[in-house]
Amino acid sequence: MAVKACIFDMDGVIVDTAKFHFKAWQRLAESLGIPFTEHQNEQLKGVSRVDSLEKILAWGNLELNSQKKIELMELKNKWYLDFVAEVTPEDMLPGTFDFLKSCNEAGVKIALGSSSKNAILILEKLQIIHFFDSIVDGNKITLSKPNPEVFLRAAREMELEPTECVVFEDAISGVDAAKSGGFRCIGIGDPQILSKADRVVESLANIHLSEL
Ligand code: BG6
Ligand code: MG
Is the CB of 45 under 6 A from ligand 1? Predict the structure, then answer.
């Protein structure tokens, strides 16, 4: 079936902000005396802020009350936003702008399917928000990836079926979400980590719309 829309995850697909999430979570984990590795970080990619904190606390066998958890999430987000303040269009990952442009020229719709509550701010900083027909972010969904809600809602907003859309993801949880929602999924990153994707490429510079 011809592709009618591309649904992009944001962090780690469109923009190199996944490294900022890692640094901010690592700082938080260390402040709590919990070791935190890049390998563990793979399990946080695509996962909501609250679910990420819960995973880190579970790794450290730490139980905290809900007020303390809110404070920690605010602190992590503050550190993360300090990095985001420096983001410019130069931080877009390779091929992003050209891929969005080719979708636009071919009449293929464009959506965002991100768990982030900071998505609109970041798309504005990248100066690409005008490309998007639908933006579904962490403020619109109740179930975090690997639940497919974020992608199903994006397809619904564009009045399309999942089989008419292709999802682009850098996270294991995001690939699982796309596949369980009935979408084709292109992984961005390491083929060994994203083995459930239909195809994996290094970046959007390594794939053309005509290949979908
Ligand atoms: C996802 C990231 O896109 O958004 C996760 O991959 C992050 O690492 C999640 O935790 C929530 O982001 P935010 O910006 O709302 O804390
Ligand atoms: Mg991502």
Answer: yes
